[in-house]
Amino acid sequence: MTIPHVNAAPVLLRSRSLMRGTYPSHGEEQSSISCCVSSSNEPSAWNSPPHTTTNDHANNPHLPPIIDDCSELEHARRISIAKSHGHTYDEATGVQDIFNSLTPHELKFLADDNMPLRHYRAEKGNLIEAIRKIKCTLRWRELFGVEDIKRCFDTKGNAHLSLEKQEELRQLADTIAHENETGKIYCRGYDKQGRAILYLTPGRENSTNELNNMKHLVYHLERAIACTRRHSGREKICIVIGYEGFKLSNAPPMSTTKHTLTILQGHYPERMFRAYICDPPLVFRTFWSVIRHFIDPCTLEKIAFCSGKEGQTLLERDFDVDMTERQAGGQRDLRRFSSREFLFATSFDRTFDEKYVEE
Fold it and tell me: Do residues 203 and 249 touch, judged by C-beta distance below 8 A?
């Protein structure tokens, strides 16, 4: 199995507040320290391993070939980290070893055939940890009912199921629909490389039920991944966190925050291209000073604080700002979000307001 690499042109951002999760202190001038952010400009098609799962999207001829969303810079860094910890970094061998470690039952819950590769990369070649964590994630996907969460709005596709199961899925859909009433999370549009944009607006929080919040989050993570896969063949998504109307009272309980980070970091490794925290208010500093200690260093490097001219420059570089919302540097007003249209009248692999022609 050949592992291709994406040629990436480094882009210099002359502000440490834009990357690495560093929130500038009050009154602090923008630092002149440069940081390198890879930008995948010449993607390569990924050759999937010779394994078949019940969720293998590669079997759908209407989907574009999978694009390896890893830059050469990231690959070189993984090799360096693996070597420093005494590991041999060999993706082809590592992926095969992970597949060989999985039982037939575990294989049923693979998100796709590239899931072992993402876990291997996330663990920087530490095969034992990669196997341990992917088994943990597969068990979580089974117990949390990820496949049910993905299909709960597909009443037509669920028609063959038992009446009891259909009612269970209907109740799950009602739960997610309630969580989504205010539009606190949804997918809309893509970045310039074809990654779906997942908007999170904490100021629109309408629930204190931690479990239901997590089901709502997982639904949108899976949907953003599906939209990206169909649209461009890439595997990573963009997250935009806007703080319109945010108050400290909107901040979730610490248990909810930890649960969110566990899901994002533990069960969706190598899925986030970048998170853009846009124009965070002063009250956000207190919340951030606490939660940043629970965020993995590799994840912190993918967090960009976007404010002022430099923040707008980053957003304009990555997004078509004529197609993004105001909170993501958008230059025009877009159609108001409709939760019911998004959940009940839009295909799972389409973002909100996406114009398309049915094939």
Answer: no
CB atoms within 10 A of CB 95: 25
Handedness of CA 69, 73, 79, 80 (dihedral sign): negative
* 285-287-288-290 Cα dihedral, nearest 10 degrees: 120
pLDDT 10s per residue in the chain (359 long)? Answer: 433 343 333 333 333 344 444 444 444 433 322 333 333 334 434 444 444 344 444 467 789 999 999 889 999 999 999 999 999 999 999 999 999 999 999 999 999 999 999 999 999 999 999 999 999 999 999 999 999 999 999 999 999 999 999 999 999 999 999 999 999 999 999 999 999 999 999 999 999 999 999 999 999 999 999 999 999 999 999 999 998 888 877 788 889 999 999 999 999 999 999 999 999 988 888 888 888 998 988 889 999 999 999 999 999 999 999 999 998 999 999 999 999 999 999 999 999 998 643 44
What tokens were used for 239? 């997250």
CB 274 within 8 Å of CB 302: yes
Report which secondary-structure segment, H or E, holds 91. helix 91-101
Distance CA 294, CA 286 (A): 14
Summary count for the chain: helices (H), strands (E): 13, 7
Helix, strand, coil percent content, the chain, rounded in steps of 5: 45, 15, 45
